[in-house]
């Protein structure tokens, strides 16, 4: 297993997500435009949108209101884009793309793309073990021997 090159601690200035303004007012918004469909949109109400109202307390940054994301919440330049395992992510679709990480196995880890078949996944995981490359989702969609 490759040891990560990054030794400094990864510090996030803010871990909590930024809530959408007034998202607490609309807990269960339902779509009723299509017959026989009742869909709850809780996730869209919590995803961030910039408030644009002329009287919006959030936009005017009143004390005690919902915080807005800005440039000051950015991560340290040396640790930006690093995963908690102290590697950067590189999406791999086949074995030949995995070969690119051969010399950079202490900085980058491989992540197998979602549309790669089970057969190719096995090849990628085997080759990654030979090249000493960390694979973040190596157990995804791999069947056990009893299923086959």
Automatic annotation (TrEMBL):
Keywords: Ribonucleoprotein, Ribosomal protein. CDD domains: Ribosomal_L32_L32e. One of its GO terms (cellular component) is ribosome. It comes from the Eukaryota. GO terms for biological process: translation. InterPro entries: Ribosomal_eL32, Ribosomal_eL32_sf. One of its GO terms (molecular function) is structural constituent of ribosome. PANTHER family: 60S RIBOSOMAL PROTEIN L32 AND DNA-DIRECTED RNA POLYMERASE II, SUBUNIT N, RIBOSOMAL PROTEIN L32. Belongs to the eukaryotic ribosomal protein eL32 family. This is 60S ribosomal protein L32. It comes from Triticum aestivum.
